Amino acid sequence: MNEADFIFSKSKELSLSGVKNFPLDFINTNKLNEVDVPDKMLVLGKEFFGSFEVSSPNGDFIMTFTNEYEAKYIVYSSQNRKSRIKIPADLTSTKKSVEDYEKYLDQLLREIENDYQKKINHGKNFTSVSSQIFKKLNLTRL
């Protein structure tokens, strides 16, 4: 099996098994606020004096957050391309949702890596392969 075949088969396998959706599968509260955002994929900018910027992929400024978890929550939620994102009203729930999602993504990466090592002898392109699989599944790990 070559890497292209692995990417195709692993993406299909994960897709058929049902990849969890953020934020719906990771919200642990009913107290939610709504945030208006552009209905496109957003990216996390760098921290600047305690603020975290969220922007479009081409660099257009969207909004700033004082907490990294709120910014990550918005970026992860933007993968659904909705113009209104429901975010937990309290920071503790937001943080837990993001941490649980990132643990889930890390688990997926470990699964992909285990299969990669078994099926591709001495494969050295795991980072590229896993990135392509995540892209096919519309996933991002910040």
Structural write-up:
With 142 residues, the chain is an alpha+beta fold. It has one domain. The protein contains four helices and five strands, in the order αββββαβαα. The protein has helices at residues 3-17, 68-77, 91-119, 126-136, and strands at 32-36, 43-48, 51-55, 61-65, 84-88. The longest helix is centred in the last third of the chain and has 29 residues, at 91-119. The two termini are 30 Å apart.
What key phrases describe this protein's structure?
142 residues; alpha+beta; 3-stranded antiparallel beta sheet; two-stranded antiparallel sheet; 4 helices; elongated
Short characterization:
By secondary structure, the chain is an alpha+beta fold. It contains 4 helices and 5 strands; from the N terminus they run αββββαβαα.
Sequence-ordered SSE layout with sheet pairings:
Elements: H1 3-17, E1 32-36, E2 43-48, E3 51-55, E4 61-65, H2 68-77, E5 84-88, H3 91-119, H4 126-136
Antiparallel strand pairs: 1-5, 2-3, 3-4
- Total count of strands: 5
Task: Calculate the terminal CA-CA distance, rounded to whole Å.
Answer: 30 Å
Output the helix-strand order: HEEEEHEHH
Shape, principal axes of CA atoms = elongated
Strand percentage lies at 15-25%
Task: Enumerate the spans where pLDDT stays under 50 for 5 or more consecutive residues.
Answer: none
Specify the structural class. Answer: alpha+beta
Radius of gyration: 17 Å
How many domain units? 1
Oligomeric grouping of the chains:
single chain
Question: What is the arithmetic mean of pLDDT?
Answer: 93
In spatial order, strands of the major sheet run: 2-3-4
Q: Helical segment tally?
A: 4
Helix content: 40-55%
Q: What summary fits the major beta sheet?
A: 3 strands, antiparallel
